[in-house]
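Lay summary. Proteins are chains of building blocks that fold into shapes, and those shapes determine what they do. In this project we predict the shape from the chain. Here is one chain we studied, written as its sequence of building blocks.
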Amino acid sequence: MSDKRSVLIVTHTGRPGAVRSAQLVIERLSEAGIAVRVLDAEAEDLACADVDVMSTSAAAAEDAEMVIVLGGDGSLLRAAELARPTGTPLLGVNLGHVGFLAEAERADLAATVEKVVGQQYEVEERMTVEVTVRQDGAVTATTWALNEVTVEKASRERMLEVVVEIDGRPLSHWGCDGVVVATPTGSTAYAFSAGGPVVWPEVEAMLVVPISAHALFARPMVVSPRSVVAIEVIPETSRAALWCDGRRTGDLAPGSRVEVRRGETPVRLARLHRTPFTDRLVTKFGLPVTGWRGRPRTQER
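And here is the predicted shape, written in a compact code that computers can read:
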């Protein structure tokens, strides 16, 4: 293993602003003596000299100090596919809309790069989930997710019929548009849009959130991280689709069973400052806090 520092840059090259930002990051890192890697699918758009062009695989992040992602949460989820197998930390620079997973904004780009050069960051681990798909008892697919796993109806015209199981026991039969199983990280993504609760990242749990369920009991639930959540597609229903982080997808035939459990391999995120999650919620959602006066003072005696 080389002692020379190296950083992989992942960019949403469909955005001209992201390309310009990536070029600035590459220039500054190179000036600091840090080797820069870019993906082969992005190298032509970035048009930077003195970079190492890597194939788009987990090998691109092997032995890298960090993966810097310039784009939105979708770009960071794409980069997580490369970084998770090697345990390489991800640092997101938000060039999209909400950017909940990002650590920095475009306006902070110069300061962000300086902190990376000075290694002024910490690394935290985020829980993932493992997904197993079975048909007639046989495993037909395995995958994973950082944000959420979703079983959705494949046909717009027909409702999806599923039975949800927790820890080997049936919970309820739902006619619905789908079911989301999310991590705390994913609680502010699809699960939030479907009416699920916001869960602080350090809470160890999984969320089960039905989508437009026609049932008396169809509330979002928070279950133990040691639980196994299973979603069985009723044999008499229409076909369904499996989505993981909105990226990895597959068809589910009637009778399919999707099992979701805590993953053994987390995703690691680089953090530049200790911003409380409450502050992140306020900033990202633009929550009104006018009138807050802080903690009440202790009365003097």
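What the prediction tells us: The first strand starts at residue 6 and ends at 11.
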